[in-house]
Amino acid sequence: MQSEQNYVNVDDYIQNIYTKNRQKYIETGKKPGMKCITYGCQANAHDSEKICGLLSKMGYEVCGHEEDAAIIIYNTCCVRENAENRVFGNLGQIKKLKSENKDLKVILCGCMVQQDAIVEKIKQSYRFVDVIFGTFNLHKLPVLLYTNMETNSQIIDIWQGAKEAEDDLPALREFKFKASVNIMHGCDNFCAYCIVPYVRGRERSRAPESIINEVEALAKDGVVEVTLLGQNVNSYGKGLPGNVSFANLLGRVAKIDGVKRIRFMTSHPKDFSDELIETIKSNDNVCKHVHLPLQSGSTAVLEKMNRKYSKESYLELVSKLREAIPNIAITTDIITGFPGETDIDNEETINLIKKVQYAGAFTFIYSKRTGTPAAAMDCQIDEETIKRRFDKILNTLNPIVYEISKSHVGNTYEVLAEEVSKSDTGLLTGRLDDNSLVHFKGGEAFIGSFVNVKIIDCKTFYLMGKIMEG
Ligand code: 5AD
Ligand code: SF4
Questions:
Q1: When comparing pLDDT for 15 and 169, which is higher?
Q2: Fold of 178-406
Q3: How far, in Å, is the centroid of ligand 2 from the Cα of 231?
Q4: In whole numbers, what is the pLDDT of the chain averaged over residues?
């Protein structure tokens, strides 16, 4: 069913569900629980905050476990096949919970369900999923959920593009002191392997005033770190009136009182302007970290990937960044096993890793995504070859990342204490300006504030530190 509702007052539906939940609260003394499981990127994580914001207006309260929830939301990703497989695995387990608790609501949303074949599969084999909606109509959740409650039937509402305001939803932020802000949606780059442009639509930038207003409101609410989100922030402003660029927007955000740290994700190497380098350099509160996805170090592969830069131009950009901002940390994404990739191409990627000296990298095995140009390309690489190349990439990367990590030891940095460490409750976890992760002893009272931390030891992927006085 592809329903496109005419104008409806979503607030009425929020109120209707709130009234039902309020009744339950009066009967049981407990607010109904919501458990949201998010896959994929920061854009999806931020969508989940908006979904939870809506649900909390409807009277739900975050709970720790699926077993305690009245509503379970899977906000899915389809960038790689294994993310989809995990969702199907989880749904299989939820079926049992659903059969034990007839009132439990199961919601499936996000990128994965923008694909027709997936929706067909859900319709056929996962009838117990109550509500399914895509990436363009999160704001319709109250209407869809209420309709399901009233009819007890599976409600599917997938739009093929953006038609209504996407940014005025109340986010239930995971952290009080840091927040993500969408500056744009979608992607126009059509990298040959990537499904994002098909499931998140054409690139559309948000008006600068709307972004500034949101950041000002966040700062007033105690947020000290803001991450500006877009699939390619460098092309921000395209299609907007006037002469707006990402560099200009970043400069304006940096002037907002109370914003002590600004991060941004993701930059495409093809259009990283000199003006942007200057803005990062000249604003102390813009973090000295750039995530600059390489994908491959072979110009031939980059061309087939439709990345629109060469090995040489990538290296030139890195040199410019390092010359202007010597302490900048550069991290990346790398895909191994793109169709037609040879051992020599892989060696080129390895050479580039050595030249750039990345502070961190997300490494991926190429995943064939139906509908993308790469899926139809000849010479898909066999698993064994990919595994061999992938191991070689990791064996090159990890010692480099370790050396950069080690260069922090002995120095003291300003760290934003973010949370109790997930692996050791006696420790706090925080981040340096350059995005390095550090664990250190400290009480929960420090969470959300900046502390001076001396780095005393390091592992490849994190640092160990201790709080210094003053
Ligand atoms: N297979 C493997 N990795 C992919 N990415 C995007 N599409 C694919 C795919 N089909 C990776 C890219 C991108 C990151 C977000 O995900 O490296 O930068
Ligand atoms: Fe995908 Fe390329 Fe767009 Fe990134 S820039 S979301 S990899 S198409």
A1: 15
A2: pyruvate-formate lyase- activating enzyme (3.80.30)
A3: 6
A4: 95
Q: Pick from 41, 42, 80, 115 the residue to mutate for probing ligand 1's pocket: most ligand atoms within 8 Å of its CB.
A: 80
3-state DSSP assignment of residue 215: helix
Let me know: does 276 contact 248? Beta carbons within 8 Å.
no
Reported as a pLDDT band with limits 50, 70 and 90, residue 4 is very low
316 has pLDDT over 50? yes
pTM reported for the whole predicted model? 0.94
| 44, 194, 272, best to mutate for ligand 2 pocket (most atoms within 8 Å of CB) | 194
Q: Is 295 in the pocket of ligand 1 (CB under 6 A)?
A: yes
Domain boundaries, the chain: 10-157, 178-406, 412-467
| pLDDT tens sequence across 228-244 | 999 999 999 999 999 89
79 lines ligand 1 (CB under 6 A): yes
Residue 470 has pLDDT above 70, yes or no: no
Which CATH class, in words, describes the domain spanning 10-157?
alpha beta
Distance 367 CA to ligand 1 centre (A): 8
Q: Cα-Cα-Cα-Cα dihedral of 429, 431, 437, 440, to 10°?
A: -40
- The structure tokens listed for 435 are 């995005």
Is the CB of 53 inside a 6 Å radius of any atom of ligand 2? Answer: no
Find out whether the beta carbon of 364 lies less than 6 Å from any atom of ligand 1. yes
Q: How far apart (Å, rounded) are the C-alpha atoms in residues 325 and 433? A: 13
In tens, the pLDDT along 96-116 reads 999 999 899 999 999 999 999
Residue listed under structure tokens 């975050």: 62
CA angle in degrees (0–180, nearest 5) for 84-85-91: 90
User: What CATH number does the domain located at 412-467 have?
Assistant: 2.40.50.140
Cβ–ligand 1 contact at 193 (below 6 Å): yes
